[in-house]
Specification:
The structure is a single chain. This protein is α/β, with parallel strands linked by helices and about 260 residues long. It has helices at about 15-20, 55-65, 80-90, 110-125, 150-155, and strands at about 5-10, 25-30, 40-45, 70-75, 75-80, 95, 130-135, 140, 160-170, 175-185, 195-200, 210, 230-245, 250-260. The protein has a domain at about 40-215: Spore Coat Polysaccharide Biosynthesis Protein SpsA, Chain A (Alpha-Beta Complex). The chain has 5 helices and 14 strands. The strands form 3 sheets. Strands 3, 4, 6, 7, 8, 9, 10, 11 and 12 form a 9-stranded mixed β-sheet that branches. A 3-stranded antiparallel β-sheet has the order 5-13-14. A two-stranded antiparallel sheet has the order 1-2. GO terms for molecular function: glycosyltransferase activity. Its EC number is 2.4.1.-.
Length: about 260
């Protein structure tokens, strides 16, 4: 079975130009969706230094404790945080995802997260029952009080897309308060043209949850992601491009391996 697609430039050219330049071609390797099955997958926004570290780690741990597999897109992480999250990745509880991968830098963080979450949807829509789309510093807490997301979402009437309450950390400590932000739940198979079902309650404004301080305590890092080692980890990628006449350009970017570098660089 051939797992590559051969793309060629088909602009009309004179015989002389084509004889000189030839017909450029690029082999593209389609990315296969993840085969492992999860009942719940959290498609998080990109993890970055704009969010307090304690809030972010708390949200990740909460999703895992509620039975969700976490797809965690990143660009670069302090070495200590990377090692900490790799423990969960090795145990099958999350995936560090070097997305979005692009030959050209994407400046807007919102666009980066939207592309990363779109990639997450494509990778898991056939193998997960529910997909949760949330900001990395938000915590989704069940309205009905169930101890897992799957038990909670299964109790609601049939829906394709549901708008849902979300907890968000509004302090510098470990107490989590309700914020006005909401998240989205997709049930698979889903119809993206269907109406959004609202599912939230003002009664949550009086609720609080607390997590043990040592659950998110990484002693060598502060809440601004500054760690003692001053080392960061990012993705080493490779670019393949098809360049042809008339400015025609098609490219594919692939993850190769992790790389370590000084955070200041």
């Amino acid at each position: 079975m051939n797992n590559t697609i051969l793309v060629t430039s088909e602009h009309k050219k004179s015989d002389l130009i084509e004889a000189f330049y030839g017909r450029p071609a690029l082999k593209i390797q389609p990315i296969r969706a993840h085969s492992e099955r999860h009942r719940i997958v959290t498609c998080a926004s990109i993890i970055n230094k704009s969010n307090p570290m304690n809030t972010t780690i708390t949200a990740i741990l909460k999703s895992i404790s509620m039975g969700s597999f976490v797809n965690l897109p990143y660009e670069e992480l302090p070495g200590e945080i990377f090692k900490y999250l790799r423990q969960f990745e090795k145990s099958g509880k999350l995936r560090l995802d070097a997305n979005p991968l692009s030959r050209y830098p994407i400046v807007k963080s919102e666009l980066k997260s939207e592309l990363a979450q779109l990639n997450c949807m494509l990778m898991y829509r056939s193998t997960a029952k529910f997909l949760i789309f949330q900001d990395i510093d938000q915590i989704v807490t069940p309205l009905l009080g169930h101890q897992s997301y799957f038990a909670e979402f299964s109790k609601f009437p049939e829906f394709s897309i549901m708008q849902y309450n979300a907890f968000i950390n509004t302090t510098h400590g470990y107490e989590i308060k309700i914020g006005s932000t909401k998240t989205y739940i997709l049930r698979t198979p889903f119809d993206l043209n269907s109406e959004i079902t609202p599912m939230f309650s003002d009664r949550l404004n009086k609720m609080r949850i607390s997590l043990k301080r040592d659950e998110t305590n990484i002693k060598t890092c502060d809440n601004s992601w500054n760690c003692d080692s001053k080392k960061c980890v990012g993705a080493d990628v490779i670019h393949r491009s098809l360049h042809a006449l008339y400015s025609y350009n098609l490219h594919q970017t692939k993850f190769r391996q992790f790389r370590s570098f000084d955070c200041s660089s």
